[in-house]
Amino acid sequence: MEIGIVWLLRAAWIAGILPILLALLPFSRLSWYRRTILEFAKRGKILQSSTKKFTVPQKFFCHFYVWAVIWTALLLGTTWMYAYVSTPLISEPFNFPAITSQLTGGSSLFSWQKSHSSRREHRFLVWKAVFLLLLMEVQVLRRLYETIYTFNYSPSARMHFFGYLTGLFFYTAAPLSLCSNCITEVYHFAANGIAQFIVKGKGQMLDVEVSLLDAVIPLANLGWRQWIGAALFFWGWIHQCHCHQILASLRIPGEQGEEYKIPHGDWFEIVSSPHYLAEIVIYGGLVVASGGEDLTIWLIFGFVVVNLALAAAETHRWYVRKFDNYPRNRFAIIPYIY
Fold this sequence. Notes:
Blueprint: H1 2-24, H2 31-41, E1 55-57, H3 61-86, H4 107-150, E2 158-160, H5 161-178, H6 183-200, H7 212-220, H8 224-249, H9 274-289, H10 295-322
Helix pairs in contact: 1-2, 1-10, 3-4, 3-5, 4-8, 8-9, 9-10
């Protein structure tokens, strides 16, 4: 079942990546296809105000993040409890050298070592999923806050309904993908707990004493890749927060007009869509924090890159057409490249 979930998620990400990747290819024969895909991707200022068919208000972005906060928190809480209860705390780091290999003198000891190593690897996998989900929750909580309190969406701002569904898909599949390698056992753990509660009642349930220190120490014992990934994640996280504040400051609260200004500051000095660039950095951080060995998480990253590259290119073209004095040294999303 676990393998089935993993491959189902991978197939879904590939199905999302390929159509957008095809639209990014610079072939004139694909221009009609590119225009079709762009119509689905357009939103806000780059969506024609007269085009209302199959669109929803852009403020519906809030729906993505409400759902993402609830769904990610559910996965995080259940996976964290499973990790705490089912993978006992070991004082040594996850990535310590197997010095017992020097002491193995027989097949029984070798088998014990392999079993111990396998358990340790499984424990690392589960706690790594907790770490990734924790980072994801930090991201979606901030995005929810920004959607409610930072952005002042124009009443006329719209997005295509297909883009709305894509957002719901992303914030359902992405958190699930971050813990896909252990989601089956986490599901059985939660289902058994619920079944026991229904049959036995709360009074007959086995009490589990939770120590905050013991629940956090395994995260501190994760490897250097996780901490480098977290540093990269928060680097993009901080810049995205700043860029969103710059964009929000361009519209006066309560303003009803369609007056747009050229944004300046932070990464806006080098690219037209630095908030998209920051999003790529954020998910690149998740790839590094995962150890770079999980194809499913690489596919999340690939989906983010192609999706935002398409949107950024259209945004950049809109800025150039809209403003005669738009800085010519700015790129769409990747500095000095694209």
